[in-house]
């Protein structure tokens, strides 16, 4: 593995973690969607770079899907939906920004410790090891975002950032079969979630996109 | 017999997958209740025949699909319950159409989704590739989400959304675990599909990096454990069971939870084959035991009849996970038997509950009284089902629970006390509610319902028969699988 290809892969994967942090502190809906689009762009650049250095052309397909769907189509769709529902004000958080960021740093540290230690014995190439550690950080940061936001749209964004982390891990696992299929399956899942928000018309059904309001209906007190 | 022969001639393995897939496409375009409900039953029956023929003649393991001693148990069980549930669904959905809860368009969608679910569950069970299995379980999650939300009521949508978010996060964690397993296998098996094939993985697991396998198992256990409904990842399960159509509650409890458990078991075998990796058993035992005791207590506060039996499913899946986690020939045998019995008994209960809720027009336990007087056939069916699920002799669940408890006493006497405690707590709750529902002065509507009693009593009869006498070939078969599970 020559130096420059490692450095670029490292930079892109690290960039994805950084953008995950940016997602954590967004408190406006449109800004959140824009940062998510950036997240998808960094991901697709990272996957395409992996395709180049591994000489695995199928990864370009994965990168292309990520770019088209998650950097353009889904953010635009969510953008329009947020406009139509009139919920583009601020996002309610359960925990403040400061503690959330601190928790995020803790999670990244945790994933570094866990993954680098776990892969030490495998003697895998250093790129794959660091990729996995970054991917786990992105996954955990996405989970953190899902639990600290009450709003359904930002939970969807949190879920999609988890998915980006997984695609990063799958692309970094050299020679892994079915990566394209898995990314397609995931895209279907994400598309369903977005369509679900549309179709189920959460706004009309529940008068709010605040998930906390949904929790009031436990089905027990009808 | 001719049908079986026909399928054998063009590979039964393909048929188990192709029949539901083709039926799903056909049902998506066919209008009309009469035809599509019958076609649904027919397709499920043909799938069952194809699965049964796999028992007789087993194709050699292929690159993406394979049949072995373990997954054939699950395939036969799931196609059987899929078939009986489709027969129940035909009469249940007929009533829902009459009262206008479902429109003809939703009906088409419902039937297509039913067959897609059958397809994806069979694919998940038969897959010889951890990635393919993941995709199949994801597809099963998606179809059940859509079916849970099919009534479009407030509660149904909320349940579907909750299931969706929790299920997706679970599925995402499982994928991360799957990638880690591939990373662990790659140095040994080389790049490509071999490093994801069960047959290759299990043969060479001894050489994998134990640290990576350990981390992978934690993710897989959390991910697929969400779908098994283990506490504390169970939150989606009661809502999804209570708000969806009842045939789906039966299929969820009877089948989908098993498919997720199957995935956990496969990875457990993988870890067990590597001497340096952590023992996966204690984690499974802990989660199973917590699920059992937690769900047992939760049973007391339920006011919705379907929700109550959903908690009972959490309890039983917890017990099965506990038994498999403990391992050993007897505990594995008992776990396998208990899983089979639970699938049969719980889907029978949901068959009864579905018609009861239709007859009474409510799912509230407080509004359902004196069923054995107002609807004797359904009422006694429910009584028998609850007696079975509570673990009273002579039903099959008594035997499997007895085996689990006695093997726990042999291995871990202290834990056995907790298991017995959880079982007794659940027993009390179930009998308490059963007494209210089944006996006393009837309330509410006493109008007849057009119900199909055959699936209900067929399941109960099987559970009873298993409790009285287990045929020797079945015992031998389950013992082989139990040894395989280690």
Detailed description of the structure:
The complex is a heterodimer of chains A (222) and B (486). Chain A has one domain. Helix content of chain A is 78%, strand content 0%. Chain A contains nine helices and no strands. Chain A has helices at residues 3-25, 29-54, 58-85, 97-118, 126-148, 152-172, 179-199, 202-206, 211-215. In chain A, helix 2 runs parallel beside helix 6 and helix 6 (152-172) packs antiparallel against helix 7. Chain B has a domain at 279-486. The chains are: A mainly alpha (222), B mainly alpha (486).
Secondary-structure topology with pairs:
The complex is a heterodimer of chains A (222) and B (486).
Chain A (H helix, E strand, L loop, with lengths): L2 H23 L3 H26 L3 H28 L11 H22 L7 H23 L3 H21 L6 H21 L2 H5 L4 H5 L7
Helix pairs in contact in A: 1-2, 1-5, 1-6, 2-3, 2-6, 3-6, 3-7, 4-5, 5-6, 6-7
Chain B lengths: L1 H8 L2 H18 L3 H24 L12 H30 L5 H23 L3 H19 L5 H36 L8 H7 L5 H19 L7 H8 L2 H27 L8 H18 L6 H22 L2 H32 L10 H4 L1 H15 L5 H16 L1 H26 L15 H15 L3 H14 L1
Helix pairs in contact in B: 1-3, 2-3, 2-5, 3-4, 3-5, 4-5, 4-11, 4-14, 5-6, 5-11, 6-7, 6-11, 7-9, 7-10, 9-11, 10-11, 10-13, 11-13, 11-14, 12-13, 12-18, 13-14, 14-16, 14-17, 14-19, 14-20, 16-18, 16-19, 17-18, 17-19
Number of helices of chain B: 20
Please describe the biggest sheet of chain B, giving its number of strands, its sense, and whether it closes into a barrel: none
| Structural domains of chain A: how many | 1
Query: What's the average pLDDT of chain A?
Result: 81
Instruction: Give the % helix of chain B.
Output: over 70%
């Amino acid at each position: 593995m020559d130096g420059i290809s490692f450095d670029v892969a490292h930079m892109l994967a690290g960039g994805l973690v950084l953008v995950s942090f940016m997602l954590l502190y967004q408190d406006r809906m449109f800004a959140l969607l824009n940062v998510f689009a950036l997240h998808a762009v960094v991901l697709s650049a990272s996957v395409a770079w992996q395709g180049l250095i591994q000489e695995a052309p199928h990864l370009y397909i994965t990168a292309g899907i990520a770019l088209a769907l998650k950097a353009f189509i889904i953010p635009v769709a969510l953008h329009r939906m947020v406009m139509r529902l009139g919920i583009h004000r601020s996002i309610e958080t359960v925990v403040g920004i400061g503690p959330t960021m601190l928790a995020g740093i803790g999670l990244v540290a945790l994933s570094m410790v866990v993954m680098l230690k776990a892969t030490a014995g495998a003697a895998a190439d250093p790129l794959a090891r660091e990729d996995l550690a970054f991917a786990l950080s992105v996954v955990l940061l996405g989970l953190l975002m899902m639990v600290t936001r009450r709003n359904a749209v930002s939970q969807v964004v949190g879920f999609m950032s988890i998915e980006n982390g997984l695609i990063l891990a799958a692309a970094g696992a050299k020679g892994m079969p079915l990566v394209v299929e898995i990314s397609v399956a995931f895209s279907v899942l994400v598309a369903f979630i977005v369509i679900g928000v549309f179709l189920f018309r959460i706004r009309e059904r529940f008068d709010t996109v605040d998930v906390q309001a949904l929790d009031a209906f436990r089905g027990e007190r009808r | 017999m001719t049908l079986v022969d026909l399928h054998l001639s063009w590979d039964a393995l393909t048929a188990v997958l192709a029949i539901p897939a083709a039926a799903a496409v056909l049902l998506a375009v066919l209008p009309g209740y009469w035809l599509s409900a019958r076609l649904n039953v027919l397709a499920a029956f043909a799938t069952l025949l194809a699965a049964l023929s796999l028992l007789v003649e087993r194709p050699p393991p292929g690159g993406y699909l394979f049949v072995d001693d373990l997954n054939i148990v699950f395939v036969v069980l799931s196609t059987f319950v899929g078939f009986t549930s489709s027969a129940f669904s035909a009469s249940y959905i007929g009533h829902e159409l009459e009262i206008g809860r479902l429109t003809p368009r939703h009906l088409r969608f419902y039937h297509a989704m039913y067959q897609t679910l059958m397809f994806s569950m069979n694919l998940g069970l038969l897959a010889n590739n951890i990635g393919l299995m993941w995709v199949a379980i994801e597809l099963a999650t998606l179809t059940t989400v859509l079916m849970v939300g099919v009534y479009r009521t407030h509660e149904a949508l909320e349940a579907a959304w909750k299931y969706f978010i929790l299920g997706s996060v679970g599925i995402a964690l499982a994928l991360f675990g799957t990638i880690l397993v591939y990373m662990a296998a790659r140095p040994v098996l080389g790049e490509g599909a071999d490093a994801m094939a069960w047959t290759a993985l299990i043969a060479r697991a001894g050489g994998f990096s134990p640290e990576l396998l350990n981390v992978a198992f934690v993710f897989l256990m959390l991910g697929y454990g969400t779908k098994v409904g283990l506490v504390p990842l169970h939150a989606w399960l009661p809502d999804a069971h209570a708000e969806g159509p009842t045939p789906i509650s039966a299929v969820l409890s009877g089948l989908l939870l098993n498919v997720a458990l199957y995935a956990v078991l496969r990875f457990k075998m993988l870890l067990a084959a590597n001497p340096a990796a952590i023992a996966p058993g204690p984690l499974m035992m802990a989660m199973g035991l917590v699920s059992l005791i937690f769900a047992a207590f939760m049973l007391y506060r339920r006011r919705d009849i379907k929700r109550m039996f959903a908690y009972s499913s959490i309890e039983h899946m917890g017990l099965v996970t506990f038994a498999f986690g403990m391992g050993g020939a007897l505990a594995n045998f008992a776990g396998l038997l208990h899983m089979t019995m639970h699938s049969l008994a719980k889907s029978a209960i949901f068959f009864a509950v579905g018609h009861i809720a239709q007859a009474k027009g409510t799912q509230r336990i407080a509004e359902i009284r004196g069923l054995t007087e107002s609807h004797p056939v359904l009422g006694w069916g429910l009584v028998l089902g609850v007696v079975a699920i509570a673990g009273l002799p002579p039903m099959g669940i008594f035997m499997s629970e007895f085996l689990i408890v006695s093997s726990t006493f042999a291995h871990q006497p202290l834990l056995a006390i907790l298991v017995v405690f959880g079982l007794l707590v659940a027993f009390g709750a179930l009998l308490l509610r059963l007494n209210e529902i089944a006996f006393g002065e009837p309330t509410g509507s006493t109008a007849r319902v057009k119900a199909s009693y055959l699936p209900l009593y067929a399941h109960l009869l099987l559970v009873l028969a298993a409790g009285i006498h287990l045929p020797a070939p079945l015992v031998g078969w389950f013992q082989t699988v139990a040894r395989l599970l280690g």
